[in-house]
Structure formats: C-alpha cells, structure tokens
C-alpha cells in the first residue's frame, strides 16, 4: 500500500460502507459486553451507594439502545427494508422509520463529514463518525483480538471480525472517493477544504495506479500522475496559507 492508502484520515474509503457499519456495531457490542461483565463480581457491593446498582443497570439499557441503533444502521446499509426492520422491532414500517431515520441520516452525513464543525477558537474538531468507522484498520485489529480472548469458539480464529466483512473492489473504492470529492463542493457558499481535497486526490491517484496495473490501462497511470501533481499543488497552497497565518 502507498502512504495515501495508509492515511488514517481517509483509510475508511478502503472499506465498504456496510463493513464500516458492521465494525461500529461490533465495537458497541464489545462495549456493552465489557460493561455488563464488570457488574458480575460482587467485590465492590459493600461500598455501593443506595440505588447505584440500578443506575448501573440503566446505563446498560442505554448502551443496549445504542447497539440497537447501530444494528438498524447496519441493516439499512445492507439495503434491508424498513418493513423488515419494523417486523423485528414489532412495530409498523413507518414507526421504525420515524424512530431511527435521524440516526441513519446522521451516519450517512458522518461518512462524508467525519468531524463536527469546530466552534470558534476551538483547536480541534470533535469526531462525528464512529471511531471504529473512522479508523477501521485499528478497530478491526482490536476487535479481532477481543473476540479471540473472550469468545472460546474463536480462540483459534485468526480474524473472527475482519475476516468476514464484505469486500470492496478497486472500482467500488474509486466510486466512494469520487463521491467524497463531489461532496466537498456540495455547499456553493463554502470553498472545499484544500487539505481534504489533497488527501482524497492522493488516494484517487493511488487507486488509478492500481487500476493501471490490475486492468492494464496505461491511461490510468497518466491520470494518476496528473492527480498527484494536483495534490502536490494543493499541499503547497495549504502550507503557504499556514505560513501566512503564523506571521
């Protein structure tokens, strides 16, 4: 893989959106399992405040609701109908849609805009996209290790989580990158972020290199060179803008 393909800010494009949704669901399930397991020992019962155990149980219910929302997002990413989802939830299609449509819409937005808008003067932006979907390689590695350690049936399985995620072809990954580039121009009032554009253009160049080799298309290699030149120009502009802001 090239440096562009290893870029932590864009590595999610190497995964299908269904795979990203599944990793987010797996991460929430692991969190729920760990938090539930923490309540099994009785060693701290004598120091618990009145009602504390009820509060802990309620926290688990809230965590389970997050798991359920992630499950709905995953099913919708697989194109499961609202009717089928509603049937599992024992509610009508419209009720299921009304209950979870905002969560699904937020997921779709986060895929394109992984960070929340930064408040004025804030040094960093908060992450809107689920961490497991933003950094899927690290998340998948950690989830594989967790499953091997905690689930006896998978102790000898190399990749119990990542080994069965839906694959993504080079062409499909290119579609995702081009879609992300198009999204940068979605707001006509705001110019596209040059750093984000450079990052995506570098990834586009890496994919064009792969297409040139895999499909035997020399014109793709030329397009890759042009994309790299554009990315370099954008990186230079970003660096110059930073220098000007510092003086």
Write a short abstract of this structure.
The protein has 247 residues and is an all-alpha fold.
Task: Characterise the protein shown here.
The chain has 247 residues and is mainly α. It has 2 domains: 17-166, no CATH class; 168-242, no CATH class. The chain is built from 10 helices and no strands. Helix 2 (17-38) runs antiparallel to helix 3 (52-77) and helix 2 (17-38) crosses helix 7 (136-150). It is globular, with a radius of gyration of 22 Å. The two termini are 37 Å apart. The mean pLDDT is 92.
Topology:
Elements: H1 3-6, H2 17-38, H3 52-77, H4 82-89, H5 93-112, H6 131-134, H7 136-150, H8 170-184, H9 194-214, H10 218-246
Helix pairs in contact: 2-3, 2-7, 3-5, 4-5, 8-9, 9-10
Labels describing this entry:
mainly alpha; 10 helices; 2 domains; single chain
CA-atom Rg in angstroms: 22 Å
Q: What is the overall shape?
A: globular
Q: What fraction, in percent, of the residue positions are helical? A: 55-70%
Q: Characterize the biggest β-sheet.
A: none
List how many beta strands DSSP finds. Answer: 0
Spell the H/E element sequence: HHHHHHHHHH
The average pLDDT score comes to 92
| Protein structure class | mainly alpha
Number of domains: 2
Distance between the termini: 37 Å
Q: Beta-sheet strand percentage?
A: under 5%
Low-confidence stretches: none
Q: Please give the count of helices.
A: 10
């Amino acid at each position: 893989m090239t440096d562009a393909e290893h870029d932590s800010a864009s590595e999610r494009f190497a995964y299908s959106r269904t795979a990203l949704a599944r990793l987010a669901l797996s991460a929430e399930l692991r969190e729920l399992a760990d938090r539930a397991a923490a309540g099994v020992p009785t060693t701290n019962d004598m120091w618990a405040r009145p009602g504390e155990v009820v509060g802990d149980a309620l926290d688990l219910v809230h965590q389970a609701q997050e798991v359920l929302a992630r499950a709905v997002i995953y099913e919708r990413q697989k194109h499961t109908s609202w009717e089928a989802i509603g049937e599992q939830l024992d509610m009508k299609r419209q009720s299921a849609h009304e209950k979870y449509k905002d969560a699904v819409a937020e997921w779709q937005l986060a895929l394109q805009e992984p960070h929340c808008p930064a408040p004025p003067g804030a040094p960093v932006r908060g992450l809107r996209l689920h961490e497991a979907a933003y950094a899927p390689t690290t998340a998948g590695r950690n989830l594989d290790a967790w499953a091997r350690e905690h689930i006896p049936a998978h102790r000898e399985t190399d990749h119990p989580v990542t080994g069965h995620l839906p694959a993504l072809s080079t062409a499909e990954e290119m579609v995702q990158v081009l879609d992300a580039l198009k999204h940068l121009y979605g707001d006509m009032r705001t110019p596209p972020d040059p750093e984000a554009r450079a990052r995506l253009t570098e990834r586009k160049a890496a994919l064009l290199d792969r297409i040139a080799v895999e499909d035997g298309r020399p014109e793709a290699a030329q397009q890759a060179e042009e994309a790299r030149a554009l990315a370099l120009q954008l990186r230079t502009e970003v660096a110059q803008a930073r220098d000007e802001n510092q003086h």
